[in-house]
Design a protein that fits this description.
Length: 210
């Protein structure tokens, strides 16, 4: 290969271990193919959700490295018992490993299990206060780019290329990939004007990913 385009600096570092061929960094672009935001009450109605509740979103294929178990344990520590965790995606590992935590959390977790069709993606991002990516490892994430498209604040862990994509304190929080780190970041989302401030910052941040 004569040249490369890489989407995270972590991948760039790995690439340089194999070749000195020319390479440039270009971040994973926004996913603009899922349409526009939907009015929140309408999106809740489409998904069968209670519009009086607030939702954090875990979205995408569920694999061990994506840390859903960490998020479930962190969510148990959240003081706001009216807050809901909406988990939307297809299990690619054994669902039973999450059973005990799901049982303890009960109605605080809303599980929409299975593949999410393209035309339904807008509904999930239109109801969510924020997206949480509690990954243990990562290069980059296409899910963050869906959140950018819908201007949804994020909590991501400090792994791989995620901190390159989500500027800490601008459109979300970057935290350590631990139960306490994730729980504290979620609590900070609802402390003061963080969500509104992040929303105001999206237009400028979206420019570099368009």
């Amino acid at each position: 290969v004569d040249g490369f385009v890489y989407m995270s600096e972590q991948v760039g570092g790995e690439l340089r271990a194999y070749t000195s061929a020319p390479a440039i960094f270009s971040p994973h672009p926004m996913f603009e193919n899922f349409g526009e935001r939907v009015e929140r009450n309408e999106a809740c109605s489409r998904l069968g959700l209670d519009a009086d509740k607030r939702y954090l979103l875990f979205f995408g294929l569920i694999r061990d490295y994506k840390g859903l178990d960490l998020l479930l344990e962190a969510f148990e520590k959240i003081g706001d018992k009216e807050l809901r965790l909406l988990v939307a995606g297809e299990f690619y590992n054994d669902k039973e490993q999450y059973r005990a935590a799901l049982d303890r959390l009960g109605e605080r977790v809303v599980l929409h299990e299975g593949f999410v069709k393209d035309e339904d993606v807008c509904n999930y991002f239109s109801v969510a206060d924020a997206l949480v990516l509690p990954y243990r490892t990562a290069t980059q994430s296409g899910v963050t780019q869906i959140a950018y498209n819908f201007s949804v604040p994020m909590v991501v862990t400090r792994v791989g290329g995620l901190p390159e994509i989500v500027a800490d304190g601008k459109v979300g929080f970057v935290c350590e990939p631990t139960v306490d780190g994730i729980a504290n970041a979620i609590e900070r989302l609802y402390d003061g004007d963080a969500l509104a401030r992040f929303g105001d910052n999206f237009p400028e941040e979206r420019k570099r990913l368009s």
